[in-house]
């Protein structure tokens, strides 16, 4: 236990990152034995990563990072922490970053989130800026020539029972995900685009949902509806299965 730089009593977990990568990050040769690589001290500074709190106290991981020197190219490199744990050059763990994101979902302010997550104001502020940029990028994305739409069961905290997904059929990129698949919500979203922009959609690929049919005709006046092969096969399979069960039940 020690005071952190925000003058709060914190839990410090000390350790050393010993695990050496399997290959040289510089020349790519496999590091199999001491003939390929040898230990070369540690980085001058310890790596400090803030984790999610433990026992309501800010928690830090303080790591001594070992370095290795490649015998093939003589390049010294520091051992790397896995990306799922902490991103490069970040001072907080991925899990703590996700916690900040979850807190930012609620109408709140950065100072409050920083205090809940026991982290710094700047970290929360930068994260909120990232979200703002991300959302702006989504908004300005033009409508594709071929739009594929469907619904899916999303997370429990969604407003609607089913969520909505739209994809650029040609590029395979997700265009948008909405938490409510009801027609009026979809129209509200697509009507955010200008009439000209909506006319650029030539084909809408979808299932046999009648509600979408009228929505598509309203939102994309020039588009032709294409029933997607997957849904035709699925429909046939279901019909076939129903008949099979009916027939089977007749037999005692
Ligand atoms: Zn090397």
UniProtKB/TrEMBL annotation:
Pfam families reported for this sequence: DDE_Tnp_ISL3
Residue span(s) of domain Transposase IS204/IS1001/IS1096/IS1165 DDE: 147-251
Annotated InterPro entries: Transpos_ISL3, Transposase_DDE
Top-level taxon of the source organism: Bacteria
UniProt signal peptide: none
Protein name: Transposase IS204/IS1001/IS1096/IS1165 DDE domain-containing protein
Protein source organism: Streptococcus danieliae
